[in-house]
């Protein structure tokens, strides 16, 4: 597959994710609202970090995905 085709396909997944956030299918949290970030794991698609939200006791597991087409495709397919 050519680089141009790869890029076009990646953009389809990125647009899908951005539209899902715009349409509020997902709750959007700003990364800067998280504190006490601690790495807790690693999966096939990236790292997982435990964090508090807005200095509360509320704990989140944040997934940081690798920025490549295969990962984006898997993330979109898992959430579709
Ligand atoms: N909600 C969570 N609470 C606590 N730990 C978590 C949570 N989500 C992920 N982890 C930790 O991060 C690791 C990686 O999680 P992730 O979901 O990315 O991968 P996985 O499902 O274990 O494997 P794969 O990436 O192959 O699907 C887990 O094995 C676990 O140790």
Automatic annotation (TrEMBL):
InterPro entries: Kinase-like_dom_sf, Protein_kinase_ATP_BS. The keyword Kinase does not apply. Keywords: ATP-binding, Nucleotide-binding. The keyword Iron does not apply. Gene3D superfamilies: Phosphorylase Kinase, domain 1. ATP binds at residue 63. GO terms for molecular function: ATP binding. PROSITE patterns: PROTEIN_KINASE_ATP. SUPFAM superfamilies: Protein kinase-like (PK-like). This is Protein kinase domain-containing protein. It comes from Glomus cerebriforme.
